[in-house]
Amino acid sequence: MTDFQNLSEDELQAVILNAEKALKAKQANKRKEVMNQIKELAASINVAVEFIDDEKKSARKGIKVPVKYRHPNDPSKTWTGRGVMPKWLQSLVEQGHDRSEFEID
């Protein structure tokens, strides 16, 4: 077994990635085996089996939401308008500004 204490961070990350890939491959193979067994059992009693692939990723996952608000003095500070309002915008609103002043056209 490998002594993980003596590995660098990059080497540890590589070990983790390889282990995750190996685990996913084993799980996929096991799933295929079980599905084949189910198909064989179903065929033995003249029943058709159809599997629905629920592993497809959501079409919305990973879609970037456009920026809706930008800090007037620091353009690197932005907000999409979703989730918790950032502190920079919160403080400006508390100072009496309207949120719509910082909307991007």
In short:
GO terms for molecular function: bent DNA binding; DNA-binding transcription repressor activity; minor groove of adenine-thymine-rich DNA binding; transcription cis-regulatory region binding. This protein has 105 residues and is mainly alpha-helical.
| Total domain modules | 2
Biggest sheet overview? 2 strands, antiparallel
Give the DSSP E fraction (strand runs of 2 or more residues): under 5%
Count of DSSP E strands? 2
User: Percentage of helical residues?
Assistant: 40-55%
Going across the major beta sheet, what is the strand order?
1-2
Number of helices: 2
Please identify the structural class as seen in this structure: mainly alpha
User: What is the chains' assembly state?
Assistant: single chain
**Low-confidence spans: pLDDT under 50, at least 5 residues?**
none
For the CA atoms, what is the radius of gyration? Answer: 26 Å
Outline, from the CA principal axes? elongated
Organism: Methylotuvimicrobium alcaliphilum (strain DSM 19304 / NCIMB 14124 / VKM B-2133 / 20Z)
Main location: cytoplasm
Family: Belongs to the histone-like protein H-NS family.
Subcellular location: Cytoplasm, Nucleoid
